[in-house]
Amino acid sequence: MAILVYVENIEGKFKKSAFEVVSYAKAIANEQGTDVTALSIGNVADEELNKLAGFGASKILKVDQDQLNQFINKAYAAVIAAAAASEQADLIILSNSFSGKGLAPRLAAKLEAGLADGAMELPTFSGSDLQVKKTAFSNKAFATEVITATKKVIAVNPNSHEPVRDEASATIETLTPSLDAADLNIVIKDIVRATDKISLPEAEIVVSAGRGLKGPENWAIIEELAEVLGAATACSKPVSDAGWRPHSEHVGQTGIVVSPNLYIAIGISGAIQHLAGVSSSKTIVVINKDPEAPFFKVADYGIVGDALEIVPKLTAAIQAHKANS
Amino acid sequence: MRILVCISHVPDTTSKITFNSDHTEFNQSGVQFIINPYDEIALSRAVELVEGTDGTVTVINVGDASTEPTIRKALAAGATDAVRIDAAPRDAWFVAKQIAQYASEQSFDLILTGRESIDFNGSQVAALVGELLNIPSVSIVKKFDIQDRDITIEREIEGGKEVLSTQLPVILGTAEGVAEPRIPNMRGIMSARTKPLQVLPAVDVPTLSTISKYESPAPRGQVAMVDDVEQLVNLLHTKAKVL
Ligand SMILES: Cc1cc2nc3c(=O)[nH]c(=O)nc-3n(C[C@H](O)[C@H](O)[C@H](O)COP(=O)(O)OP(=O)(O)OC[C@H]3O[C@@H](n4cnc5c(N)ncnc54)[C@H](O)[C@@H]3O)c2cc1C
Ligand SMILES: Nc1ncnc2c1ncn2[C@@H]1O[C@H](COP(=O)(O)O)[C@@H](O)[C@H]1O
User: Fold this and answer.
1) How many angstroms is it from A242 CA to the middle of ligand 1?
2) Which ligand is nearest the CA of A309, by number?
3) Looking at the predicted structure, is the pLDDT value of residue A141 above 80?
4) Does B105 touch chain A (CB under 8 A)?
């Protein structure tokens, strides 16, 4: 009984989360004495597919019918269910990405599988039950979910499992599932993606700013800092509400949840709703002119002072550090 | 057009989340409950869509009697009528089965949920119900427009957006951007008292998973305050090892 993992690509290139989920599945497979089969849907070259072997997939299924070149959750759920049946896989793993959130529940409902969404650690097994820790209450808490159903789906939070290289020799097989026209009655008309930007949910470093920046005209210093760090930019809710930054950058309880290695909060007070979206960051740096700002209580490092002065200096210091190392 | 809006009753966003002593249940004492903020957005858009037409907006909640004040608030914000499925919501699968059962006996053109509930927040219900009813579902919708039976939807993707189109009926999980929440006015509040609220029994649902325990995040260590950026860079490099 292999473990099936569904991997996402963007225009033929795997997302970072693809390697994360293969690696996650491989860690389980090693413990369970089984193998990992990776399923890729869409037009992906064999050379790219072979990269999955580097993280432990020993069989790679590719589905590249033209009708499936774009993500349609209804059709993709049907394809993954078909692959699970042909592989006799009872455990299916995918990423809890934006697309994954629309896909995993459909797949689980189709299979009557138990679904653990937002998994943040490897599962443990007892008998036929699987236990896994996941986020709950908008990241204000964690829950241990026990899946008792025979079929199990785990949607792994982006950035919660570091991909580990584990060379396997893989075979690539083409799967040609029969498609139901009713599953394909969605037309993707347009995709707008800022390709020069690092995707916020997947970013390892996030530079985030709040109302303390005073206005959109001051964001250049935030973007410069992000640039030298190779970071994604984010903001607090009032900043996107005011139209200073796009909604897609708003992090927090009602925005995007991030868990980067480094979160730098600049001119953000640290309201509970904001913290909910960022508290699982590994290291938090806070820059705020008010020494009493609540954000300092949950930070690892803090600097008190005017962001407009400190941020350019920090950018310069990081540049100098990178030049010397 | 007949629209169904799924509303969940959740702890206010400022609530401190604590658990009972054996960590198996959320501690509700002193917690104020509200309509899930995303569901408020969905409801607001639904009311906007039927305004000035003979369309209706039904709200549905799966919950025990304690959720009725939340349901009345949804009626005050402009819903036509309400349904409560009388059961404590066990998980998203249980909720989705109840909603799908009710919706399958009716014929809604459009079903809306929030992108996620801020308590259990699995962002599961829209896609689960979509699969159970065998209709398209789109999660994390930022905007949508309807022309006759055609619907154009903008959904969030990493670093951007995707625009797609399909035909009604569909189910959407809505996020910010779809509409602004409505503040109920006095007339709304008065009329909400007399709008129909039907209570229906729950259907049996097999258990697929359970929650064995909840935990609060471990507190972070003491913050290290630094005086200058060179010192910060040094610490991030040598101690935190993130640079
Ligand atoms: C239902 C609901 C949901 C919400 N969801 C979210 C959410 O998901 N995400 C979110 O972020 N918020 C959310 N909020 C809003 C939240 O409560 C706060 O209002 C918000 O996070 C505050 O944003 P801020 O820190 O940017 O602004 P403020 O609270 O105004 O803080 C600005 C900070 O900047 C500092 N500052 C000012 N000038 C400078 C300077 N020159 N240099 C350095 N520092 C300076 C100030 O000392 C202050 O600490 C929500 C609120 C509600 C009611
Ligand atoms: N108990 C409930 N009753 C009705 N609708 C619900 C309930 N729980 C969740 N929903 C709906 O499903 C959406 C997503 O919830 P979730 O899958 O829990 O994140 C919410 O925004 C609501 O619209």
Assistant:
1) 12
2) 1
3) yes
4) no
- In chain B, residues with a C-beta closer than 8 Å to the C-beta of A199 are 158-159
Has this prediction a pTM greater than 0.90? yes
- Asked if B128 lies within 8 A of A108 by C-beta distance, the reply is yes
pLDDT in tens, B153-167: 999 988 789 999 999
Instruction: Indicate which residue's Cα is closest to atom 37 of ligand 1.
Output: A212
Q: Quote the CA–CA distance of B2 and B192 in Å, as a whole number.
A: 19
DSSP A98-139: HHHHHHHHHHHHHHT-EEEEEE-S--EEETTEEEEEEEETTT
Please state the rounded mean pLDDT for residues A43-51.
96
Answer yes or no: are the C-beta atoms of A197 and A55 closer than 8 Å. no
Measured in Å, residue A235 CA sits from the centre of ligand 1 at: 9
The two counts, helices (H) then strands (E), for chain B are 6, 13
Instruction: Considering every ligand atom shown, identify the ligand nearest to the alpha carbon of residue A214 and give its number.
Output: 1
A126: left (phi over 0), alpha (psi -120 to 50) or beta: beta
Q: How confident is the model at residue A196 (pLDDT cuts 50, 70, 90)?
A: low
Measured CA to CA in angstroms, residue A73 lies from A115, B106, B218 at distances of 16, 25, 36
Chain A residues within 8 A of B16 when measuring between CB atoms: 140, 272
Using DSSP's 3-state secondary structure scheme, residue A285 falls into strand
Q: Residue A145 and residue B166: Cβ atoms within 8 Å?
A: no
Q: Which residue has the higher pLDDT, A148 or B181?
A: A148
Query: What confidence tens digit (pLDDT) does each residue in A26-44 have?
Result: 999 999 999 999 999 999 9
How far apart are the CA of A173 and the nearest CA of chain B, in angstroms? 28
User: Residues of B70-105 as b/e, b for ≥16 C-beta within 10 angstroms?
Assistant: bbbbbbbbbbbebbbbebebbbbbbbbbbbbbbbee
Q: Is B62 in the pocket of ligand 2 (CB under 6 A)?
A: yes
Average pLDDT, chain A: 95
Task: Name every chain A residue with its beta carbon within 8 A of the beta carbon of B223.
Answer: 286, 296-302
What is the pLDDT, as a whole number, of residue B58? 98
Q: Ligand 1, atom 39: nearest CA belongs to which residue?
A: A212
Helix ranges (DSSP H) in B78-118: 92-104
Q: Report the percent of chain B where pLDDT is more than 70.
A: 100
